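Need the bound structure for iron/sulfur cluster, inputs here:
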Amino acid sequence: MSVGELKVPFVERAHRALNDRFLQEALNTATTRFMTLRHEAFQAFPQGEALRERAREIKEATLQKLDFYLEQLADNVERLGGHVHWAATGDEARGIILRLAQERGVKLVVKSKSMATEEIELNEALEHAGITPVETDLGEYIIQLAREKPSHIIAPAIHKTKGQVAELFSRELKRPLAADPEVLTKVARGELREKFLQADMGITGANFAVADTGTVVLITNEGNGRLVTTLPRIHVALMGMEKVIPSMTDLMVFLSILPRSATGQKISSYVTLVRGPRRPGEMDGPEEFHLIVMDNGRSSQLAGTLREALYCLRCGACLNVCPVYRQIGGHAYGYTYSGPIGILLTAMLHGNHAVRDLAHASSLCGACQEACPVKIDIPRMLIELREHLDRERIAPLAERLIFKSFARVLTTPALYRVLGRLGRLLQRPFVKDGRLGALPVFLRGWTDHRDLPPVAERSFRERWRELER
Ligand code: SF4
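Answer from helper R.:
Posting the output first, comments after.
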């Protein structure tokens, strides 16, 4: 999805996704697999529940002393020979990276998967400055070749079938390739190896940053993170300020629940701990290490409605279980972060106007909270967000009037009774086989993709009175 497509209304983007046969196939296969793997992993891990609670406590305690931990982190990174930069906005973060690259004559950058760099549209900025970024995570490599945006936090190319990837590789790499994941991975690996050796700068995100040791932690499954952080002469890591955690003991808690939630693994294939640049006598590692700590709207939510969204580990579990995401995929959301947590992060990064429609892209079923390793109360925050949209008059007038009237009906028993009776009468032409289908005009959206139960012939109160008689 390109930025220009944001001009297409959300409903239209969602409809397009629903009618895309390939997308539906790819989404269903991948999210179902992730859900099953996660479920099995936690079933075989009785300590999981307690560790999820502990992880939540750590996140909350860290946010309460965020300034202290960030300073401690910065002191320790500098003690290890690294440089720390503070970016208040995404623009500032981009500017710092561009300046570092330009001052050092960087022409080629290799990157490992990082949602923070997606958030600030770093690749576009680098290309604009004449610097070539190369994504080295397989999923990111695929979408870079396709000139698209990620559609899932941990599986950026989840929307593509292997047949589509084979077509893309054949076209872009100019040789016919079979739709065989092993063949395609081998080809990508061959293409990328050279780039690691040629690149002057490696750019990564940070899954965690440990304050009391100055360690930046990267979790990957392909090993590309290690090559990005050790082969180029400069390593730049970009992190959202909420990624700091107090200690290595805390890290162990997160390492045990994050991979299980994301991919059902007991531990990710590679856990890379970066502690500053190469030191005398060391065989590998960069000559320079820079850590950029980015705010970009986060601190404004420390005391705001969306505070709990700052606990997020970016594992993607809430996307896989969300009945909305599973149908429309990530691109329909229109922003970097998709799924239920994506709506909250979009509001945090781009303001409430950006989520005028998205705030309703949730059934509030609670599956996201149940799947979340830190039990983030996403449904509660979505409801509060909707309240804000109403109070700030961002929600459309018709919607505000409808909900106001609805609230009035629900809190006035007499009105509720009258409208209940009226509803029973009006629904008659639309009830078939005990289900309400194909409502007319502006009510159509409710029954386009499903039937609804009709208003009951007798209300609970009427039945109760009968029973009493
Ligand atoms: S909200 Fe929870 S489940 Fe969703 S990505 Fe963040 S940590 Fe994972």
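Comments: The radius of gyration is 25 Å. Residues 318 and 368 are 4 Å apart (CA to CA).
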